[in-house]
Amino acid sequence: MKTMPPVRHSPTPAELGFRMPAEFAPHDACWMLWPQRPDNWRYGAKPAQAAFVAVASVIAESETVFVGVNDDQYENARHHLPAHVRVVELSSNDAWMRDVGPTFLTHPDGRLAMVDWEFNAWGGLDGGLYFPWDKDRRIRMKIAEILGIERFISPLVLEGGAIHVDGEGTLITTEECLLNSNRNPEWSKADMERLLSDFLGVSKVLWLPRGCHRDETDGHIDNLCCFIAPGEVALTWTDDESDPQHAISREAREILEQVTDAQGRRLKVHLLPQPGPLHIAETEASGVDRLSGSKPRRPGDRLAGSYVNFYIGNSVVVMPRLDPTHDDEARAILESLFPERRVIAIDAREILLGGGNIHCITQQQPRAIRATGRS
Q1: Is the pLDDT of residue 367 over 50?
Q2: Catalytic positions (predicted)?
């Protein structure tokens, strides 16, 4: 095991007073990307594009939405997206803005900044999902230029879907992802905690062992569990003991109910039913191009469906509609958890077929609010 890199001479974001706010804090904007890869999205991504438009349209009711588009799809995206959604030319290898986009930070003086993590397409040449990922690696730098904000470059290979924070010092993640040998094999858990603290301003990291069953991201936390308020989390759950997801969720629940957060609180755990189980149909797999450099979509493969993969907007919660058996129950639970927001369900199977869901295709840009002191 290698040791940490030499101590940085420049101050860390945390030392400068920056921190990552919770998703449920106010936003100025949401960033997305436009799907088009025929080897990941069926039928030339046309069904997926319709789902992305639906997500962007709902979020744009209460915050600015930017959609980054490759040049050859710019006119098509502009035609389908509402006029108040801002379409910008921003080349990408695929459409997972949560993972390839920046993690935004705020400062008490009102400044906005970002963390530019390393990205290797969820594992690089050891289990990664596509090659190359050169355009994705430039997205964070480009957004920093567009917004004119400071960019802190981190040595960590990390995707945004691998972390959730409560905005009060606590971060939650999974060992399966952040400690995976295809991400950061040279650093220990303690090293990872120090780097997360340095770049995000957190003081406590809560580790769950595994993410959702068959999650191709190597266990992103945002498909399993998320903060919905300080001291409260939502966790995907199934009562079916024969389902591999049951053991994963039970293990996570036991840990979550025993730990305390950075403020010393015991967590309140809210359970969201698991949809399905869901699997890729023959007709769905047949519409995807087969290329050697990308993950195949095979009929019968299980999909890592989860209602936890929702987006918390300023006035809405945008959740995936995935299974008529459980959609209404999941929506009712979310409505009880977010009484001051409208919960809107979007048909999201097309997004799931590509390997993720609504949270995965979005990245919130927090509102940087200047702290006020007593005069």
Answers
A1: yes
A2: 360
According to the model, what pLDDT value does residue 2 have?
Answer: 46
pLDDT digits (tens, 9 = 90+) for 73-89: 999 999 999 999 999 99
CA atoms within 13 A on the CB side of 263: 12
pLDDT at 7: 47
Ordered by where they begin, the domains of the chain are 27-366 (3.75.10.10)
By the 10 Å C-beta count (0-12 exposed, 13-18 middle, 19+ buried), 242 is classed as exposed
Asked if omega into 277 is within 30° of 0 (cis), the reply is yes
Q: Is 226 a catalytic residue?
A: no
pLDDT in the model for residue 373? 58
pLDDT tens-digit readout, 101-128: 999 999 999 999 999 999 999 999 999 9
Task: Say which amino acid occupies 96.
Answer: W
Kindly name the residue from 177, 225, 226, 360 that is annotated as catalytic: 360
Q: Assign 177 a pLDDT band (cuts: 50, 70, 90).
A: very high
Question: What is the per-residue pLDDT for 9?
Answer: 61
Closest CA to 305 of 284, 275, 272: 275
| Distance of alpha carbon 165 from alpha carbon 14, whole angstroms | 15
| Beta-ladder partners of 88 | 68
Q: What is the pLDDT of residues 334-352, one digit of tens each?
A: 999 999 999 999 999 999 9
> What is the reported pTM?
0.95
